[in-house]
Amino acid sequence: MTSLLPEKLISVLRYAKDELAPFPGRGTMALNLIVPCAIVLLVSMGFRIPYVSLSIIVVFFVVQSNLTLTRIVGVVIFIVAIVGTGANLLLLKYTYDYHALRLLSASVMVFFGIYAMRVSKLGIVFYALSLEPLYVQSFADMTSMSQYLLEQCFWSTFAVLYPVVVVLLVNSYLFPSNAIQYLHDEVRRQLALISGRLAYLAGEVDNSEIKLNPKQLAQSAATLQKLSKFAAIGDKGPYAMKVYRQAVVAAVAHLLQITNSLSDTDRLNCPAGQSVTRHLGLQMQALGDSFFEGKTYSSHWAPIPDEQAIFNEHPHLLEIRRTLLALDSIGTSPEQEGKAESPKGALIVPDIRTNPNYVRYALKVTLSCIAAYIFYNAVAWPGIHTVMITCAVIAFPTLGATMHKGSLRIAGGVLGSIAALVINIFIFPHIDGIMGLLLAVMPVIAISAWIAAGSERIAYIGAQTVVTLSLALFEGFGPSNNLVEIRDRIIGILLGVLLMHFVFTYIWSESVSGDLRRKFTSQFHKLAALIRSSVSMKEAATHERQNQYLQQYLDCWSQVEECDRLLLNLRLERDYSENGKNQHLVRGAENMLARSRDILLAQDAFRTQANRFADGEGDLAKEIQTLRAQSADFCETYAKGIESGESQSSEARQDLDVTCRNLARLAHRQGADQYLLSSAQHLARSLAALPTWAQTNDDTVESQPLANASQNIS
């Protein structure tokens, strides 16, 4: 059936399936959104508390992926709501009768709030404070009665405060989000995949689910890294346990990659081989159990001589064994005791005085908001006041990130408007109570909550769907039959996104390409350090170097995922240049990202195969070390080329070609197996195929493969 669909539609459906798939913690977070929304609707409608839509928005803003973050955001919003209301009342007291002065004062508050958000780690506090003056402006334009205005300010404050209390109670006592538990679940899930693959190699099962592509491997590693960071937030346990937890995360990511690289030809039919794979599978289970119980892993398995011979013949199995032993060593290592956690970074960005982009960004956002405010007042169309809110909500430093948030806001707005339209026409005429209202809107809120609990690539769609639905349906204390509200909300969103696109494209435009360039530079510096730190057989005896390598390996995968996220934003930057520079840049960055994943896998495979020979004194060992050093130097030079924009020299690629040919000649002479040669070829060709950053600015983004390596190594 899928073969009849267009290829682009199939890719969209596959993307949607991946984004909507469950993962540890997603269901709990969705429940933490659904239940408070239901309570807020009941309380607000039952007690006639105005600004129901604002209360539901607060629920989606406060709920985070773990309980600690939820509490932090909840407390911040609670404090900001009280302080902000006081500041705005003071502002209105002196400027209410002077429209121009009131608008100027609100603009100053927005400017400093947005500026402080950009330069400070307390950005969420200043961001919330900058939104309040915009919201109060809409109140001031409603009436000339100061008493009514005062009441609306207090009601809006209460509509913000009580949902925060509801969220904290639900998150703390009904569905607590335990980040450590989510990490345990993900570790055990990936260990189960590894155990299944080992059971397949031992002949115990007929098939194995594990066979991931490089992008999926990167996402699996990034998921572990993200959950590990969340687990560390608010964890009051000993520092040594945090170090051990991070080591387990790095080890599991590495083990998943190793077992994923094993093919059907690696199946072991001999009794010793089956015993080795069976014991390794049991060790995976023991690692998962000990990690779940909060204990350190201990390996009590001592291979017999026949099993040790299997390890000597199969480097991948030996690498699995070495990784497990490295974890075992952490449990008894006294070096972590008494260590303190690394100091936190500075509260303010270091280049606050020298970087003009911070002031420019705050000016762009403020001007956009004020222009939107003047527009909907000039045309006497207050129903589209979402145009002003949109300008503040989707504002990000770069054009690509702003357009990404804007596209998600439009998608959520369209979905919410359609849902509101359907409920208005087909459901509201048949209900006459609060329970009927709940039954009508809760399915939409539940779906939106599931989307909002997903990755940052789509999460805002869920929140925006509920926001649009709430603004369209819950402005009064009962079902609304005014379809104009639905029209006005979506028009306001569209106009706001268009305005931000214009401002961020033509006024001091900040492209995400600069961030992507810096991230790629950092990534290849880390790759160079990773290749240099490859652990030989002798060095692994202490296990400390092995653990360092595993952590560097995980950091490299995290860098790759960061580049992928920035590349998504770069694709959304509209290219108005005559030569299509941005399109070439995107194609080149995509090529570079794909090659980065290949290099990560290739260097690890080469390291695994080469370690059997790297400790020797002969010419083969020297050539292995030469290729390793040249590969690291190539990555360093490549990183500098990205930073400076210079083209890569062809001499480095030729040196890799020469070393590969020498390695092939010596390997054939000393009887080395084909795996060593193929892994060396894969590494060298992946490096040589990298496009230079200069190439991404023209049509030549194709790779530059080695001329003779494929003939000499295959």
What do these coordinates show?
This protein has 714 residues and is mainly alpha-helical. It folds into three domains: 24-177 and 356-506, no CATH class; 179-336, no CATH class; 519-713, Up-down Bundle (Methane Monooxygenase Hydroxylase, Chain G, domain 1), CATH 1.20.58. It is 73% helix and 0% strand. The protein is built from 26 helices and no strands. The chain has helices spanning 7-20, 26-46, 52-62, 67-95, 99-119, 123-140, 146-174, 179-201, 214-232, 239-261, 271-292, 305-313, 315-332, 357-378, 386-393, 399-427, 434-452, 459-473, 483-506, 513-532, 544-571, 581-614, 619-644, 650-670, 674-688, 709-713. Mean pLDDT is 81; it is low at 332-338 and 698-714.
Approximate strand percentage: under 5%
Counted up, domains total: 3
Query: Could you say which structural class the secondary elements and strand pairing correspond to?
Result: mainly alpha
Shape: elongated
What is the radius of gyration? Answer: 29 Å
